[in-house]
Amino acid sequence: MCRHCLGQILDSDHNLLVAKICTRLKKIISFQKGKSRWDLEKFYTQKQRVQDTLEENLGAIGCDNGNVDVQWKNINKCVLDTVSDLVRKFEKSARKPWITQDMISKMGERRKWKNVNTEESRKNYRRLRNELKGATDKAKKEYLENIRNKIMEFQRTGRYDLMYMKSKELGWKETQKVPTYWHRRLPRE
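Now predict its structure.
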């Protein structure tokens, strides 16, 4: 809503403008690389070994009567070195099991060419997109075919509990449809 007021109040010949402005602040999300996490499963399986190594390394440091900050840094460094040697951190893995590390590296390369506005970059982006699309579709089809074969094998052997567990592993909801190539007629036994 906008209106103007005459300038007689201020003894001026200018018309004052009064307006109601509605604004919304937009939150800009910057993509930050997440911190890599320790593989806690591996940590718990090697718990005793980690504990023994850590006690050994902390005993080797010794207690100096020096600065507390220096002692803390030494302890922190010792713990991090021990854990990183024995436990390791998680490697970035795909949420979908058919995605390989090669595909993830291609995705990163494709992302690099996405926002560059030259003819060569567009060609590179299209080429990588097409390669990636073909590779992911083929890998997904093979993965689903393997799962289908396992489920059918469980059904033939009468292991319905394993059959249902394997189908539940796919994580499909009732609203999602099974891919069409699953509906092929199976040969009668």
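The CA atoms of residues 151 and 167 lie 7 Å apart.
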